[in-house]
Amino acid sequence: MASEAATDEASETYTEFIEKVQRLSNVGQAAGVLAWDQEVMMPEGGTPARSKQRSTLSSLSHELLTSEEMADLLDELEAESLAPEREAVVREIRRKHDRAAKVPQELVEEISEVSSEAMPVWQEAREDDDFEAFAPTLEKLVELKREYAEHIDPDRDPYEVLFEEYEPYLGVETAEEVLQRLRDELVPLVEAVRESDADLATDTFEGEFDTDVQEELTRDVLDTLGYDWDHGRLDTAPHPFSTGNQFDARVTTRFNEEDPLGALMSTIHEFGHATYTLGLPREAYGTPLGESRDMTVHESQSRLWENHVGRSAAFWERFLPKVQDRFPDRLGDASVEDVYEAANEVYEDNLIRVEADELTYHMHIVVRFEIERDLVRGDLDVEDVPEVWNDKYEEYLGVRPDSDAEGCLQDIHWSHGDFGYFPTYSLGSVLAAQLYDSAADDIDGLDEKIAAGEFEPLHDWLTENVHRHGSRYTTDDLVRQATGEGYTADYFLDYVKSKYGALYELDDYQ
Whole-prediction pTM value? Predict the structure, then answer.
């Protein structure tokens, strides 16, 4: 009887705990809707009120997470013998609680308010090609986030602490090792590609393409891939993104009349994020079991759909007729091989990360990683960012920006204070290749199914092996569950060397 009473008491404690966790989650979800609205719908003059609203919700979230009641419940539950899923929930909330409890609430509010006010400053600075107009705001955000990291652990590298906001389990050492390996192995591959005499149909999408028709085409691609319009929507934003939960996962894109492929690829990328979000278990909404496993895994889903599906010949066998229906004069005579080659061109002079090809993309990430790491560590002054940025582009990509708008002002992340985020793009790309390889092993004729428009088997495999687990497992454990081995860059490097070796007729890479 005593053991039954103890079990009942533990169950009651867990129920009380979950109620608080769900309230915390709902505050965060409300803040997310306000953030989406600010980037997509809010009138320009709404910033002063919106920054206060988001600051208040950030403060409330901090209060709920760091309260004495939450601390007591965590202590009680950690002393109990819990089922594995409950242990995972407690583990995730404990990690967040311990970090947040070290940070003064006033600092949390200030970071939220400054980052909210920073976005329109960044937008205007980018439009005016005026880094100096954004520099004071960037400097303030760097100072605030450095202070934030020092509160959490003054004895550790502040950038390492911030990186763990986005990838808490792989470690910044893994990020550095992966990025170094990509730099070492991709640069020679890119050089070989640029020296190749292969004649690809890189002019397939040249010309002007009406942006209204492009929007219709992006809706076509979302329909083709199986986007759930009952639980999502498509809008435009200065920097494409996806946000939401398993009941409401929204995507955005942007259009350039001279780059229809860019809009398609960014839409497929954001679809990957959204389909992960929509695949999370609905019964676990409001708890870590119903939340994504941080940004490496999230980016793996977007990069998998964008690159392994959206840039594949199999996909274009299915989707090219839709493109030709929308743009018969421009693309009526294009072949699957034409659009496949155009979609996988390695650019000579690409400056914009979100428009980068699959190979040079990672050098864009290396540039941002090195700069933000040095900013946070105090090894680089904000005023020197444009020159250092341009120097690194010249060194790593062989091209130098002519303006800050196409250089250090092109990304939105630093205006959000998201220092430590960028490495997860490359970490996610690496994981995407590992996951896709396992999916192809398990799904008979995956390429043939994609060519036939049968995307459900891949959806189902990803939901079964990734989405449905939420944050139950740590990153490496989730990768092992899905693929049978630990996280590795081997599959990504094998994939790109084989793919681009064949495309560009490189004997050393086939």
Answer: 0.94
DSSP codes, 296-322: HHHHHHHHIIIIIITTSHHHHHHHHHH
Judgement on whether residues 264 and 372 belong to the same structural domain of the protein? yes
Distance (Å, whole) CA 478 – CA 289: 13
Continuous segment of H or E residues that includes residue 253 = strand 248-253
Strand-pair partners of 242: 251
Edge to edge, the sheet with strand 248-253 lists 234-236, 248-253, 242-245
Domain that holds residue 214: 172-509
Q: Which residues of 145-166 are buried (b: 16+ CB within 10 A; e: fewer)?
A: bbebbebbeeeeebbbbbbbbb
Q: pLDDT tens across 242-275, in order?
A: 999 999 999 999 999 999 999 999 999 999 999 9
Catalytic amino acids?
Answer: 270
Query: Alpha-carbon distance 14 to 8, whole Å?
Result: 10
CATH number for the domain spanning 193: value is 1.10.1370.30
Judge if 176 and 91 occupy the same domain. no
The sign one gets for the Cα dihedral 228, 231, 236, 237 is negative
Cβ neighbors of 504 (< 8 A, separation 6 or more) are 192, 193, 196, 198, 200, 346
